[in-house]
């Protein structure tokens, strides 16, 4: 199903739409490439004797050398512009 903006509403459909559109439009290819750079990865934060699972961005870090929690500002900006749901989109990759 498509939203009022013409983009697919389901994360799987949006991902497929981006793949097909990227083959024909360099701007969409650039968006897809940025999302690929800023994919998420599961990490573990150690806080004393506790281990806290975190999802972090593979393309971002902080000035202190720490990981950036995902979705990072880049992913949020792109997915907000596309009216996507970042967590749902990543879960289906």
Q: Unreliable runs, pLDDT <50, ≥5 residues?
A: none
Class from helix and strand fractions: alpha+beta
Number of domains: 1
**Total E-strand runs:** 3
Number of helices: 4
Q: Which whole number gives the mean pLDDT?
A: 80
- Output the helix-strand order: HHEEEHH
Sheet with most strands? 3 strands, antiparallel
Biggest sheet, spatial arrangement of strands: 1-2-3
Q: What value does the Rg take, in angstroms?
A: 15 Å
Distance between termini? Answer: 19 Å
Strand content: 15-25%
Helix proportion? 40-55%
Given the C-alpha coordinates, what overall shape results? elongated
Q: What's the arrangement of secondary structure elements?
A:
Layout: H1 11-22, H2 26-37, E1 40-47, E2 50-61, E3 67-69, H3 73-81, H4 86-91
Antiparallel strand pairs: 1-2, 2-3
Helix pairs in contact: 1-2
